[in-house]
Fold these 3 entries.
Entry 1:
Amino acid sequence: FTNRSQLEALVSEPEAERQPPAVIAAIARQLEQQGGNAATLLRILINRYPQNFWLLIRMSYTDANTGILEGIGCLRAAIALRPGYARLFNALGGKQRYIHRDDEAIASFKRAIELDPSYWEPHGNLGDVLARRGQLDEAVACFRQAAELEPAAGYIQWRLGQLLRKQGKHPEAIELYRQFAAWWPEDPEVHHNRGLLLFEFGELAEAATSLRRAIELFPADNPDRQAAQSQLAQCAAFDSVAAKLPAFLAGTDQPAI
């Protein structure tokens, strides 16, 4: 495409409503590569074809050029055309959550779930908003549901582990982090967080193993590597105290602790 009229012609009636999303995306992408403003083109086309669902969807994902409020408006217009499409409500809730319109985001995610209870993403997104509001029990329930629907969703499992840890449900959280270490054996953050949780729960030997693995995997200049080294030293110190404690309590030997 060399000019705007050629681009507009590609999305002309009666073809406008039948253009697949890939074509609309390709139009905007090529215009951007040519140094043009895709948002301006999309506005022109939407003004001409306000019932074009795919134009509205494409416009809703140009936030860098249009601003998130315009993206929200496009999603609302798309929802008016397809009110039974759960993914639209999930996308709308994501934008509302981003600008901290939490009540609106909650309503959008709940509507997405009503429309398609098997769609796992809005369960997790709803959990994120509820966790931000301090509603941890409800958030955990959302993440559990999302994890059941999509066990391979690493972020969902991760957030569930974080919230269980925050609630003090250490045994369950530890089991999740053990799963994480099996799934992502080369991720230093997994081993680091697992080591911290085990340390908090008094499992010093296993905590030390996880922290050593994290130290091996972290880049040398990563601040978390130094933090893991410090925490590993704390494990050794606590283990030393624990080893001396029985004799101290028995009164047969009373070394300075």
Entry 2:
Amino acid sequence: VPSDPAARARMRARIIGSTAEETTWIFYRLNIYGFAGGSLIPFFTMNHLSVNQWKPMAADQFATRTFECGVYCRFDTDEPLEYWDNPITGERRKVWQFLGGPFNVTIGADGIATRGAELAPKTLRMEALGGMVVVPTAASMLRPNLIDPAKWPKLYSGPKVYWESQATYAATQDQAFDESLAAADSFCHFQNMGSWHPWLGMGAAEGRTYGNSHGAKLRSLDGIPLAARRTLEQYTPQIFDTASWTKPRMDIPEYLANPQP
């Protein structure tokens, strides 16, 4: 990878997003499982879309304003879920679809700074492998659980809330090193492991959720698979009108304002 810090920053931004003032989109299929100490238990699949509004701030600094959404579907399908039968507790739960952001990310030569999000990814070693340039990041969160277990016993997963997330972006070396190119065509992946989301209604059940995704950076919304796009338009239409999305959306606090007991 480039030894020059500014060139390294441009490469990182080119692979993750863009070095120009433009919007890029990333669509993921996120398969989510329950982990309760044995084999993974398939829960559902999320159709996940992020809208990333990029702007160069300096020769070695690139910023984005990011909006996110996700629609829960029956596992490995595009069949949206309104209710979900919990395979661990046996209870039917009303699904809480995901909206998050906007939050701000700034990419530099050797780091990523995030504002307005619970997770703050750190850069790992960027390197060339097998004709690709790979850009990995990792984030970890630990905070007290603010849910009152006496009031909401099914929503309380324990005294601490944990969240681990690792992401990887990869582009061909030809595009990654091409200084005439603002945005490379990138394969995108993330996996996470976190405390039970309150809407799952797990209560005192031991375990966490594990998510594993595959996706790609898109040059337009037309790149979203049609069946997946229909789920997003039906359940998270806000993601297609970010100009009107002026209030920050925080997933868990919003759910707790009016939860299913």
Entry 3:
Amino acid sequence: TEKAAGELKTRLRTALELSTDAAMVVDARSLAFLDANEAACAMLGMSLAEVRARGPATMRRRDGTGAGDFHALYAQLIERSPQALTHEYDFLAEDGRVIPVAATRQALNLDGRWLIFITWRDISAQLSAQPLVQQFKDAFDQTPDATNIIDVQTLGYVYVNEPFLRLVGLPRERVMSGGPLSMPRDLVVVDGLQAFLQSVVASHPHAQVRENTVTLPDGRQASFESHHQAIHSGGRWLVRSTRVDVTRRKQQQRHLARITAA
């Protein structure tokens, strides 16, 4: 009915507006775009009306994906619903831009109608930082200290090493997708993160050093000395953070203080 269609449209619009990434909704059967948020229109280089007049099969991609491929993909998503699938590819915008994106798709059944909710995340910054990350990767992986690199503009992780993953007690996929803002507050600077990163950039080439006591995933208390240094690469600012476990040193200092005070 007309009322049901209006309610569906409102629900879709609410879902799109809640997304911080470019987001679109596709009808799984007709392959028509039903709606898109402002970020999606900007990425596509189209107005909302132009987007609605198109469909995913008309979008240009370097891999040449066609309508048949989308029908097969959407059938797979429907079979796996509510599980989402994410993969990366180069999207060709209407204005000629080549945009590397991480696309996440999820099939949703709304009132008996299968829709595909799609989000696109521009990963240009992440890819532009990869040469620098690769340069330091071996050194990062060999150090026993927890190390990560954050993109100052996107507030996302560009790289984290194995000691950092052990420190936060989370798998790499969750850390990379969630970013610093999803990490435990006493392990990673969360409140005022952007201001803190900007202050590290302002201190370049000098590092900022902080000390804090954190609760590890196993419940133990540990003291860390964190070194934060800005790096300029590919026109973007990154911040490398290294956490050195100084728990034993702090214990020795407290023990010495007790002896001297006796």
